[in-house]
Design a protein that fits this description.
alpha/beta; Oxidized Rhodanese, domain 1; five-stranded parallel beta sheet; 9 helices; 12 strands; 15% strand; Rhodanese-like_dom; repeat; thiosulfate-cyanide sulfurtransferase activity; TST/MPST-like; transferase
């Protein structure tokens, strides 16, 4: 499995795979798109559920949606029964929204076999597949994975500020063009309008088609149009940002699909940068 995505057909065929750990990573709050609203709980059979705003968020940190601590992560994946042999598949109820955030958390903490269901629950429902109304409880046998954060995959404002003039490092912002250009207000109080100097804008909706990601060839063209220097394999580092570190992971995953490799997340994103008066704004 070389792609970070799996299809609904693959998942259907592997629901009984003993190594599969299926996780609903949906979030209650959806920003940047019209949310899909459900009249009752719906999950794919065999799903666990995780809380990206609770047990997998460092709520003691200043920033919004901070990456979980290694201790938080370890406790959660052990609860889910995840082992080094597990095939972890994540999805959300918006198609592609918060599942990429969970995917990057698991990857950054050391897990390798982690995938996102392309199209998520909406695609699954559109194909008439079975659903259930409640998640699976804790795993019967807890896993033994211990999280260790790879800090080259998660950046902070100090790193971004230090590399503002570095032509080998580019920040790509997943917010809407209106927010990027300070033509629309920020949804969080006390956050300035605008963007990180020299950053590029790629609204996350532009890498999606319906509920799913666009094909890899079209994603590659999308990134190439942002700047001539953005070519896979040329040693260029791409740092992804958004409002608070959620939708940045959508375009980060899109970049991996397009063939880019030196990728990282600015976890605090604009909620962090825009609220810090000492940092420059364009």
């Amino acid at each position: 499995m070389t792609s970070p995505l799996v299809t609904t057909d693959w998942l259907q065929d592997n629901l009984d795979n003993e190594h599969l750990v299926l996780i609903d990573a949906s979030m209650a709050n959806v920003i940047g798109k019209e949310p899909i609203v459900y009249d009752r709980p719906m999950l794919i059979p065999g799903s666990y559920r995780i809380d990206l705003e609770g047990t997998l968020c460092d709520t003691g940190a200043f920033q919004v949606h901070a990456f979980p601590t290694e201790e938080q992560f370890t406790a959660e994946v052990r609860r889910l029964g995840i082992t080094p042999e597990s095939l972890v598949v994540l999805y959300d109820n918006q198609g592609i929204y918060s599942a990429p955030r969970a995917w990057w958390i698991l990857r950054a903490m050391g897990l390798k076999q982690v995938f996102v269901l392309d199209g998520g629950l909406p695609q699954w429902l559109a194909e008439g597949r079975d659903i259930v109304s409640a998640p699976v409880a804790d795993a019967a046998v807890h896993g033994g994975v211990v999280g260790k954060l790879d800090r080259t995959l998660v950046r902070d404002s100090a790193y971004v500020f230090q590399h503002l003039e570095d032509e080998r490092v580019t920040v790509i912002d997943a917010r809407s063009q209106a927010r990027f250009l300070a033509q629309a207000p920020e949804p969080r109080p006390g956050v300035r309008g605008g963007h990180i100097p020299h950053s590029l804008n790629l609204p996350f909706t532009e890498v999606l088609e319906g509920y799913r990601f666009k094909p890899a060839s079209r994603l590659a063209s999308t990134f190439a149009l942002l700047a001539p220097s953005l070519q896979p394999g040329n040693g260029h580092q791409l740092v992804f940002s958004c409002g608070s570190g959620i939708t940045a992971c959508i375009i980060l995953l899109a970049a991996e699909l397009a063939g880019y490799t030196q990728l990282s997340l600015y976890d605090g994103s604009w909620a962090d940068w825009g609220s810090n008066e000492s940092l420059p704004v364009a």
